[in-house]
Amino acid sequence: MSTSFLEIVELPDGRIALRRAEDEEALVVLDFSSDAKAFLQGQHVEVAKAMLNVGVQMAGRLAEGDFQHEQEARVLH
């Protein structure tokens, strides 16, 4: 990924996207269900920002080789 600026935007359909500032194409899109939005009491944008922030940090660590890859199978939940 280039070193251009990234931005987090709310799309017209309510999804949250991470994209390059100079590009309309989304790199990552988060789509919260109506149940999730209700549970988060309107704070889904803040949760999306936190999720994307951690994801970008992790991608940076992977790119720098600072991440230990686990050899065992992982349960994702």
Mean pLDDT: 89
Query: What order do the strands of the largest sheet run in, or round the barrel if closed?
Result: 1-2-3
Secondary structure tally, helices: 2
Describe the sheet with the most strands.
Answer: 3 strands, antiparallel
Organism: Pseudomonas benzenivorans
Protein name: ABC transporter ATP-binding protein
In short, what is this structure?
This is ABC transporter ATP-binding protein. With about 80 residues, this protein is an alpha+beta fold. It has 2 helices and 3 strands, in the order E-E-E-H-H.
Describe this structure in words.
- The chain is built from two helices and three strands.
- The chain has 77 residues and is an alpha+beta fold.
- It is 35% helix and 19% strand.
- The protein has helices at residues 34-39, 44-64; strands at 6-10, 16-20, 26-30.
- The longest helix is centred in the C-terminal third of the chain and has 21 residues, at 44-64.
- The protein is flat and about 40 Å long.
- It has one domain.
- Strands 1-2-3 form a three-stranded antiparallel sheet, covered by helices on one side.
